[in-house]
Amino acid sequence: MQLLSVNIGDLKKASPVRRLGRSTVGRILQQAIAGLRDVHLGGYIHRDVKPANMCFGISPQQSGDPQTSFLALTCDSFQEFARAVLSLNTEEEPNYAALQALLTELVGDRKMSDPYDWETNYREAIEGVRIYPYGFQPKCRSRRRCHAVIEEAY
């Protein structure tokens, strides 16, 4: 097997906060689910698909059940996705459309091809300002204060 791009470990190391952004993780999982769907459509079944085999970066020093520890640190949307994955069994085919919809909601308005998404998430977290991709028009406009109110504040 050959790497087609930068591996996940290198992306994490390049990040100033040493972790991947929410939408970057969502895109990774979208690709993993698409790959599993294609394998299933080809007639093959992977019997050991579980979060531990699809989640990256869980520390070997971590105590307790990795699944519950991992879920406790995630946002509600990821917890909902993880519960859907954990509820799967080997007797039925997963509802790929539902899983894809959950992940699409997590990725949000990000460009799927944006290689610097983790950097954008970091800047948004630090600066507190939503940074939109080039050409994207936000659905909601921010409320602006009139000059008179701003001048009174200073």
UniProtKB/TrEMBL annotation:
GO terms for molecular function: ATP binding; protein serine/threonine kinase activity. InterPro entries: CK1_Ser-Thr_kinase, Kinase-like_dom_sf, Prot_kinase_dom, Ser/Thr_kinase_AS. Its EC number is 2.7.11.1. Residues 1-154 form the Protein kinase domain. It comes from the Eukaryota. It is an enzyme of class 2 (transferase). SUPFAM superfamilies: Protein kinase-like (PK-like). PANTHER family: CASEIN KINASE-RELATED. This is non-specific serine/threonine protein kinase. It comes from Ancylostoma ceylanicum.
